[in-house]
Structure formats: structure tokens, C-alpha cells
Amino acid sequence: MGDVSAVRRRRAATVWLLSLLFAALAAAGCGFPAGDPSAGGAAAGATPAAVAAAATPTHTTGPDAYERSGRTSQLHLVLPGPDTAGPYPLVVALHSLFHSAAETEGWGLSQLAQTAGFAMVSPDGIDGSWDAGSCCGDAASKDVDDVAYLHALIQHLETNYPIDPTRVLIVGLSNGGMMAYRYACEHPEDIAGIAVVAGSLEQPGCKPKTPLTVVSVHGGKDQHVPGAGTTWQRDLAAPITSTADSLAPFRAEDRCEPATSPGDVTATGPDGAPRLSETLSAGSPAVTPAQIRATLAGARPTGDPASADAAPITPVPVDAATNPTDAVRTESTCAASARVVEYFLPNVDHGWPASTGPAAFDTATVVWRILSGARANPVPNR
């Protein structure tokens, strides 16, 4: 992995890489209808890149696989500030159906990259879609090899930028989240973790071979990709896997306990911080159930002279009428170092949750706080 020169790192933090030269890809894709409310753009038609890609075989293995992948569409790359020392983490952001890399600008991750010190790349799916397995549409039926493409893209960036290969993360919305799940099923050793927003696991028989951290954020009012799942989604002509079943393979590989212990299921505020009880909050959004229990056991309310050494907890009154639950957070202790964290947002529809307003949830910050501590695990010899 080569170093990036000081001049290179001081160039514009946001770079549009246009007309990258490739050989070709196997197909155009499809998925949610144009009315998918994941973002506010209109549906894209078949692009010249998609048409050209459909005519030529895919070559996405071996040296220079990325250059020969056939992807000539735009690639949005955000680098951390010039003073950020490498190697730094990489976040691969995957847009929702019938949208493009530009959609990810509204998620808050590219702005966070500058302050938190990670790189972010947002590729375009062929014809605005990703082949996530059993879904969606032409992308699945034509076997667009998005797994190989993303694998080659990650390797390309690790070669040309000071990326920490143990801290590669994938964040996806809707169809992009489905793609994140599929990649985690097939190449868990490549990445430290994924975050899926309003998505589901559509890769049958998923059995990740090594632990990795997974974060799920799903709205209770989502009818496009319902968290409870459905045997048939008419718009997609495919079944939708429930959030619980989507997370099950990763909970199994991470050897996570059932969420039955105190603190495993908690109400949270818009910052994702668990409300430890109806009257107490730890004030930290980056706590595990074990830390919650330890904090409760050793803490005293702020100003309590009974234990000057104990960690303080500030009482926070919670009134369901004036301060309703913004999210329900579920996480149990796992034997592996990886984590599986689920956020259920009762008042949120399909799409990336708004950062302001009555149903606000700071998704980018919440996801980063969890994934920033994750590290990739090699596949064990079994």
C-alpha cells in the first residue's frame, strides 16, 4: 500500500473522478420503482455506461481488476483533511435504488469524514441499482457482479491511498444496504463492518465465515422494505427478509447472546444514546450492554457525595407524552470482538432518517461511533 504525497493529500478533499477507464461489465440493473422515496431524485434511465457495460464480459479478478471492470460512471471520493495521518479508515457508501453516488451527500457521512478522519467513496451502481442476491429486478436476473466490482474497488483504493485494510466499512441505504449485506456474506474478511439503513438481507444461505460488526437502522413506518419482512413485495417481485432474520447469520457468527439481559433493549434519544432506565442516562452513545450494567452498578447521580470516585450519571426525566422514544436500541453481548446493533425507529418511513425535525435521528454519527471501533477479522482455519 503506497503513501499519498503531501501535495496529493492537500488537494480538494472532495474529488469527482470522471471517465475512469475500464473494459466492461455484464449487465444493467433494476430494483425499486421510480417512486422509491429513499431520496428526492427522479429515477435514472439507462445510462451510456450501462448500455456499454451490458455488451461486454466482466473482468474483475486479478491485477488491475478495477481498471478492467467496465465501470465508466462517476465515482465520488472524499478524503480526510490534509493533516490526517494514514493509514485511515475507508467507508464505502452505497446509494439506494434508481439513485447515484450524489445521493450519499445528503447522509452526513462526507461531512463527518473531514472531522473524524476517514475516506469515503460512493460508487454508482449500474443503471442505479445493485445486485443484492434475490433482489432486485434486472440486476439480479442478469447476474451483475457487483461483489467482484466492489472487491476490486476496495483493493484499488488500498493500493493507491493510505487506507487501513483492517478498517474498511460499507454503509448502504435500501438496495445499497441489501448490497452491503451480500458483500458481508461473501467477503466478511475484507471489511470490519457494515451499516444497513432501510435494507434487508436478500442473499439466500448467507453464512459469513468470520465475525464482523453490523448496524441496522430501520423505520417502523417503512412499507417498501418492511422491518417485519413480507413474503412478497409487489414492486420488487421478491420477498423481503425481516430485520431479525437479516441479522441472524451475523449474530450467530459473532456468537451473540439472546437480547434478554438488562440493558440489551433500551430506548434512545436522537443521538442513539441509551436511556438506561426511565429516569437515567449514561450520556454516552458508545456504550455496550456490559458497560451499561457496569455503569449502573458503580455510578452515583451527579453531586451525590456517597461516592466521589464513581462515574456520574445525570438524571434525565423521560415523559412519553413530551419526550417520546426516538429509537429502540437492541444489542446483546457477543463472544467475538464484533458487535451487532439494531436501531428501530418507530416514527420513521423508508429512507435515510432526517437529522432534524420531530423524528430526527443522527444516523451518520451513530453509525460511525459504532463502526469506528470495528476491525476486520481473518477467516479462521476450520
Please characterize this protein's 3D structure.
The structure is a single chain. The chain is α/β, with parallel strands linked by helices and 382 residues long. The chain folds into two domains: 6-253, Rossmann fold, CATH 3.40.50; 270-324, no CATH class. Helices cover 21% and strands 19% of the residues. It has helices at residues 6-10, 48-54, 109-116, 137-141, 146-160, 175-186, 243-253, 289-298, 363-371, and strands spanning 14-17, 75-78, 88-94, 119-123, 163-173, 193-197, 213-219, 230-233, 238-240, 265-268, 274-275, 280-281, 300-301, 312-315, 327-330, 340-345. Helix 6 (175-186) links the parallel strand 5 (163-173) and strand 6 (193-197). The longest helix is centred in the middle third of the chain and has 15 residues, at 146-160. It is globular, with a radius of gyration of 21 Å. The two termini are 29 Å apart. Residues 1-60, 284-290, 299-308 and 313-318 have low confidence and may be disordered. It holds the Pfam family Abhydrolase_2. Keywords: Hydrolase, Signal.
- What sort of overall outline do the alpha carbons produce when their principal axes are compared? globular
- The low-pLDDT segments are 1-60, 284-290, 299-308, 313-318
Main sheet record? 11 strands, mixed
Order of helices and strands: HEHEEHEHHEHEEEEHEEEHEEEEH
Rg over CA atoms: 21 Å
Helices and strands: which structural class?
alpha/beta
CATH topology of the largest domain: Rossmann fold
Q: Indicate how many domains the architecture comprises.
A: 2
Corresponding CATH architecture of the largest domain: 3-Layer(aba) Sandwich
Number of strands: 16
The share of residues in extended strands comes to 15-25%
CATH superfamily of the largest domain: Alpha/Beta hydrolase fold, catalytic domain
CATH top level label of the largest domain: Alpha Beta
Ends: how far apart? 29 Å
With strands numbered from the N-terminus, the spatial order across the biggest sheet is 1-2-4-3-5-6-7-16-15-10-11
**Share of helix among residues?**
10-25%
Average pLDDT rating:
77
Number of helices: 9
